[in-house]
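Good morning,

Attaching, inline, the C-alpha coordinates for the sequence recovery test we're adding to the shared suite. The designed sequence is right after.
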Protein backbone atom coordinates (compact mmCIF):
# COMPACT_ATOMS: atom_id res chain seq x y z
CA UNK A 1 0.00 0.00 0.00
CA UNK A 2 1.20 3.55 -0.77
CA UNK A 3 2.52 5.21 2.40
CA UNK A 4 0.33 8.04 3.66
CA UNK A 5 0.90 10.99 5.97
CA UNK A 6 -2.08 10.60 8.28
CA UNK A 7 -4.16 7.53 7.43
CA UNK A 8 -4.38 4.59 9.84
CA UNK A 9 -5.37 1.70 7.61
CA UNK A 10 -7.05 -0.21 10.47
CA UNK A 11 -9.28 2.77 11.23
CA UNK A 12 -10.21 3.41 7.62
CA UNK A 13 -10.97 -0.29 7.05
CA UNK A 14 -13.36 -0.20 10.02
CA UNK A 15 -15.11 2.93 8.73
CA UNK A 16 -15.37 1.38 5.27
CA UNK A 17 -17.30 -1.51 6.81
CA UNK A 18 -19.76 0.91 8.45
CA UNK A 19 -20.51 2.93 5.31
CA UNK A 20 -23.71 1.12 4.36
CA UNK A 21 -25.26 1.92 7.75
CA UNK A 22 -24.01 5.53 7.95
CA UNK A 23 -27.30 7.22 7.12
CA UNK A 24 -29.39 4.87 9.29
CA UNK A 25 -30.41 7.12 12.19
CA UNK A 26 -30.98 4.21 14.55
CA UNK A 27 -27.99 2.11 13.39
CA UNK A 28 -24.37 2.00 14.57
CA UNK A 29 -23.82 5.66 13.63
CA UNK A 30 -26.75 6.86 15.76
CA UNK A 31 -24.52 8.84 18.19
CA UNK A 32 -23.10 10.81 15.23
CA UNK A 33 -26.61 11.64 14.04
CA UNK A 34 -27.53 12.86 17.53
CA UNK A 35 -24.45 15.05 17.98
CA UNK A 36 -24.70 16.29 14.41
CA UNK A 37 -27.90 18.18 15.16
CA UNK A 38 -26.19 19.93 18.09
CA UNK A 39 -22.97 20.57 16.14
CA UNK A 40 -24.80 22.00 13.13
CA UNK A 41 -26.27 24.80 15.25
CA UNK A 42 -22.82 25.62 16.59
CA UNK A 43 -21.19 25.52 13.15
CA UNK A 44 -23.82 27.85 11.71
CA UNK A 45 -23.52 30.29 14.65
CA UNK A 46 -19.73 30.37 14.44
CA UNK A 47 -19.81 31.00 10.71
CA UNK A 48 -22.41 33.74 11.13
CA UNK A 49 -20.27 35.47 13.76
CA UNK A 50 -17.00 35.07 11.89
CA UNK A 51 -18.29 36.29 8.54
CA UNK A 52 -20.88 38.78 9.82
CA UNK A 53 -23.90 37.26 8.14
CA UNK A 54 -27.27 35.88 9.27
CA UNK A 55 -27.22 32.37 10.79
CA UNK A 56 -27.72 29.75 8.08
CA UNK A 57 -26.92 31.98 5.10
CA UNK A 58 -23.91 30.34 3.55
CA UNK A 59 -24.13 31.48 -0.08
CA UNK A 60 -20.71 31.96 -1.61
CA UNK A 61 -18.78 30.39 1.27
CA UNK A 62 -16.36 27.58 0.47
CA UNK A 63 -16.40 24.88 3.13
CA UNK A 64 -14.24 21.74 3.36
CA UNK A 65 -15.36 18.97 5.72
CA UNK A 66 -12.27 16.81 6.20
CA UNK A 67 -13.01 13.29 7.43
CA UNK A 68 -16.61 13.83 6.38
CA UNK A 69 -17.79 10.23 6.64
CA UNK A 70 -20.88 9.79 4.47
CA UNK A 71 -21.70 13.49 4.62
CA UNK A 72 -23.91 14.12 7.69
CA UNK A 73 -22.57 17.68 8.00
CA UNK A 74 -21.84 18.32 4.30
CA UNK A 75 -25.47 17.99 3.29
CA UNK A 76 -27.10 20.61 5.56
CA UNK A 77 -24.28 23.05 4.79
CA UNK A 78 -24.76 22.56 1.04
CA UNK A 79 -28.51 22.94 1.54
CA UNK A 80 -27.79 26.36 3.14
CA UNK A 81 -25.98 27.46 -0.02
CA UNK A 82 -22.31 26.73 0.73
CA UNK A 83 -19.95 25.26 -1.86
CA UNK A 84 -18.95 22.10 -0.01
CA UNK A 85 -15.99 19.77 -0.51
CA UNK A 86 -16.17 16.54 1.51
CA UNK A 87 -12.92 14.62 2.03
CA UNK A 88 -12.67 11.14 3.49
CA UNK A 89 -10.06 8.39 3.36
CA UNK A 90 -12.71 5.64 3.35
CA UNK A 91 -13.82 5.05 -0.25
CA UNK A 92 -17.04 3.33 0.83
CA UNK A 93 -18.03 6.38 2.87
CA UNK A 94 -17.53 8.64 -0.12
CA UNK A 95 -19.57 6.23 -2.27
CA UNK A 96 -22.39 6.34 0.32
CA UNK A 97 -22.07 10.14 0.55
CA UNK A 98 -22.32 10.56 -3.23
CA UNK A 99 -25.39 8.34 -3.46
CA UNK A 100 -27.14 10.10 -0.59
CA UNK A 101 -26.43 13.64 -1.78
CA UNK A 102 -27.55 12.75 -5.29
CA UNK A 103 -30.84 11.45 -3.93
CA UNK A 104 -31.18 14.69 -1.93
CA UNK A 105 -30.52 16.79 -5.04
CA UNK A 106 -27.43 18.42 -3.53
CA UNK A 107 -24.18 19.17 -5.32
CA UNK A 108 -21.22 18.30 -3.09
CA UNK A 109 -17.68 17.71 -4.32
CA UNK A 110 -16.65 14.48 -2.55
CA UNK A 111 -13.03 13.31 -2.68
CA UNK A 112 -11.38 10.10 -1.46
CA UNK A 113 -8.14 10.45 0.50
CA UNK A 114 -6.32 12.47 3.13
CA UNK A 115 -6.19 16.28 2.99
CA UNK A 116 -2.65 16.58 1.66
CA UNK A 117 -3.45 14.26 -1.25
CA UNK A 118 -6.85 15.54 -2.35
CA UNK A 119 -6.89 19.27 -1.58
CA UNK A 120 -5.13 20.95 -4.45
CA UNK A 121 -2.24 23.42 -4.31
CA UNK A 122 -3.63 26.92 -3.94
CA UNK A 123 -7.14 25.67 -3.08
CA UNK A 124 -8.46 27.71 -0.13
CA UNK A 125 -11.61 27.47 1.97
CA UNK A 126 -13.42 29.97 4.18
CA UNK A 127 -14.31 27.24 6.65
CA UNK A 128 -12.60 23.96 7.46
CA UNK A 129 -14.32 21.31 9.57
CA UNK A 130 -12.47 18.50 11.34
CA UNK A 131 -15.33 16.78 13.13
CA UNK A 132 -14.75 13.63 15.18
CA UNK A 133 -11.77 12.80 13.01
CA UNK A 134 -8.48 13.78 14.69
CA UNK A 135 -8.86 10.92 17.19
CA UNK A 136 -8.76 8.51 14.21
CA UNK A 137 -5.72 9.81 12.32
CA UNK A 138 -2.11 8.75 12.50
CA UNK A 139 -0.46 12.10 13.20
CA UNK A 140 -2.70 14.84 14.59
CA UNK A 141 -0.21 17.69 14.09
CA UNK A 142 0.41 16.77 10.44
CA UNK A 143 -3.30 16.24 9.76
CA UNK A 144 -4.22 19.65 11.23
CA UNK A 145 -1.33 21.34 9.41
CA UNK A 146 -2.22 19.73 6.06
CA UNK A 147 -5.84 20.85 6.41
CA UNK A 148 -5.06 24.32 7.80
CA UNK A 149 -2.79 25.00 4.83
CA UNK A 150 -6.02 25.26 2.81
CA UNK A 151 -7.73 27.82 5.05
CA UNK A 152 -8.15 31.23 3.42
CA UNK A 153 -6.96 34.36 5.29
CA UNK A 154 -9.70 35.29 7.77
CA UNK A 155 -11.00 31.71 7.67
CA UNK A 156 -12.49 29.60 10.43
CA UNK A 157 -11.48 26.09 11.48
CA UNK A 158 -13.75 24.07 13.76
CA UNK A 159 -12.56 20.80 15.26
CA UNK A 160 -14.46 18.42 17.51
CA UNK A 161 -12.97 15.40 19.21
CA UNK A 162 -12.63 13.50 22.51
CA UNK A 163 -10.33 14.50 25.35
CA UNK A 164 -7.89 11.97 26.82
CA UNK A 165 -9.04 11.73 30.44
CA UNK A 166 -10.18 9.05 32.86
CA UNK A 167 -13.70 10.33 32.37
CA UNK A 168 -13.51 9.95 28.60
CA UNK A 169 -12.29 6.37 29.01
CA UNK A 170 -15.29 5.59 31.20
CA UNK A 171 -17.82 7.46 29.04
CA UNK A 172 -16.66 6.93 25.45
CA UNK A 173 -15.19 3.44 25.71
CA UNK A 174 -16.65 1.62 28.72
CA UNK A 175 -20.08 3.33 28.65
CA UNK A 176 -20.74 3.83 24.94
CA UNK A 177 -19.04 0.71 23.53
CA UNK A 178 -19.33 -1.92 26.29
CA UNK A 179 -22.27 -1.06 28.57
CA UNK A 180 -24.82 0.72 26.37
CA UNK A 181 -23.34 -0.59 23.08
CA UNK A 182 -24.41 2.48 21.13
CA UNK A 183 -21.07 2.42 19.28
CA UNK A 184 -19.43 -0.65 17.74
CA UNK A 185 -16.69 -2.08 19.98
CA UNK A 186 -13.28 -0.81 18.89
CA UNK A 187 -14.62 2.50 17.55
CA UNK A 188 -12.31 4.44 19.85
CA UNK A 189 -8.82 3.97 21.23
CA UNK A 190 -8.16 5.97 24.36
CA UNK A 191 -4.51 6.61 23.54
CA UNK A 192 -5.57 8.39 20.33
CA UNK A 193 -7.89 10.83 22.10
CA UNK A 194 -6.67 14.42 21.84
CA UNK A 195 -6.32 16.86 24.73
CA UNK A 196 -7.55 20.41 24.06
CA UNK A 197 -4.06 21.78 24.57
CA UNK A 198 -2.65 19.29 22.02
CA UNK A 199 -5.26 20.34 19.46
CA UNK A 200 -4.52 23.97 20.21
CA UNK A 201 -0.79 23.41 19.81
CA UNK A 202 -1.33 21.74 16.42
CA UNK A 203 -3.55 24.63 15.31
CA UNK A 204 -1.30 27.43 16.54
CA UNK A 205 1.73 25.73 14.96
CA UNK A 206 -0.29 25.92 11.73
CA UNK A 207 -0.65 29.71 12.07
CA UNK A 208 -4.16 29.75 13.58
CA UNK A 209 -5.42 31.73 16.58
CA UNK A 210 -7.35 29.79 19.21
CA UNK A 211 -10.96 30.78 19.81
CA UNK A 212 -13.84 29.36 21.79
CA UNK A 213 -13.97 25.84 23.25
CA UNK A 214 -17.13 24.11 24.30
CA UNK A 215 -17.85 20.74 25.90
CA UNK A 216 -20.43 18.33 24.52
CA UNK A 217 -22.19 15.78 26.70
CA UNK A 218 -23.80 12.63 25.35
CA UNK A 219 -26.08 10.32 27.31
CA UNK A 220 -26.03 6.94 25.54
CA UNK A 221 -29.01 5.52 27.45
CA UNK A 222 -31.30 8.27 26.09
CA UNK A 223 -29.45 9.24 22.92
CA UNK A 224 -29.38 12.86 24.06
CA UNK A 225 -26.61 15.40 23.51
CA UNK A 226 -26.19 18.89 24.99
CA UNK A 227 -23.54 21.55 25.60
CA UNK A 228 -21.57 21.60 28.83
CA UNK A 229 -18.72 23.68 30.28
CA UNK A 230 -16.68 20.55 30.90
CA UNK A 231 -14.17 19.63 28.22
CA UNK A 232 -13.39 16.32 29.89
CA UNK A 233 -15.04 14.08 27.26
CA UNK A 234 -16.33 15.46 23.92
CA UNK A 235 -15.52 19.02 22.95
CA UNK A 236 -15.41 21.36 19.97
CA UNK A 237 -12.90 24.16 19.45
CA UNK A 238 -12.73 27.05 17.02
CA UNK A 239 -9.63 28.60 15.47
CA UNK A 240 -9.25 31.60 13.21
CA UNK A 241 -6.70 32.36 10.53
CA UNK A 242 -5.60 35.98 10.68
CA UNK A 243 -6.89 37.85 7.67
CA UNK A 244 -6.40 41.19 5.96
CA UNK A 245 -9.96 42.49 6.28
CA UNK A 246 -11.64 40.50 9.01
CA UNK A 247 -11.47 41.67 12.61
CA UNK A 248 -11.11 38.79 15.05
CA UNK A 249 -14.60 38.39 16.57
CA UNK A 250 -15.17 38.62 20.32
CA UNK A 251 -15.40 34.86 20.76
CA UNK A 252 -11.96 34.41 19.23
CA UNK A 253 -10.35 37.04 21.42
CA UNK A 254 -11.85 36.96 24.90
CA UNK A 255 -12.53 33.37 25.55
CA UNK A 256 -13.17 32.19 29.11
CA UNK A 257 -10.59 29.87 30.60
CA UNK A 258 -12.13 26.44 30.85
CA UNK A 259 -10.10 23.72 32.49
CA UNK A 260 -10.16 20.18 31.27
CA UNK A 261 -9.93 17.46 33.85
CA UNK A 262 -10.64 13.80 34.12
C1 LIG B 1 -15.92 9.20 13.33
S1 LIG B 1 -15.97 9.50 11.61
C2 LIG B 1 -16.57 11.15 11.59
C3 LIG B 1 -17.30 11.50 10.32
C4 LIG B 1 -17.83 12.93 10.21
N1 LIG B 1 -16.78 13.93 10.38
C5 LIG B 1 -18.91 13.18 11.23
O1 LIG B 1 -18.57 13.63 12.34
O2 LIG B 1 -20.07 12.91 10.95
C6 LIG B 1 -14.26 9.73 11.17
C7 LIG B 1 -14.04 9.75 9.66
O3 LIG B 1 -12.71 10.19 9.39
C8 LIG B 1 -12.20 9.45 8.29
N2 LIG B 1 -10.74 9.50 8.37
C9 LIG B 1 -9.93 8.90 9.26
N3 LIG B 1 -8.66 9.22 9.03
C10 LIG B 1 -8.64 10.06 7.96
C11 LIG B 1 -7.61 10.76 7.26
N4 LIG B 1 -6.33 10.64 7.62
N5 LIG B 1 -7.96 11.53 6.21
C12 LIG B 1 -9.26 11.66 5.85
N6 LIG B 1 -10.27 11.01 6.48
C13 LIG B 1 -9.97 10.23 7.53
C14 LIG B 1 -12.79 8.07 8.48
O4 LIG B 1 -12.78 7.32 7.28
C15 LIG B 1 -14.19 8.40 8.98
O5 LIG B 1 -15.11 8.49 7.93
Amino acid sequence: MTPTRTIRSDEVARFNRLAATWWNRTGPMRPLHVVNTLRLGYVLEQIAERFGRPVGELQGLRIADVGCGAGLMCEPLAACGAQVVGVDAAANNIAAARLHSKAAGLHIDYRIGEPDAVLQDGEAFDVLLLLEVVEHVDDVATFVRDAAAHLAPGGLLLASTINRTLRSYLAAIVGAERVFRVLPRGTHHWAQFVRPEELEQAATASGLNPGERRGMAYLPALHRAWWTRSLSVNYIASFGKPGADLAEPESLLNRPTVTSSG
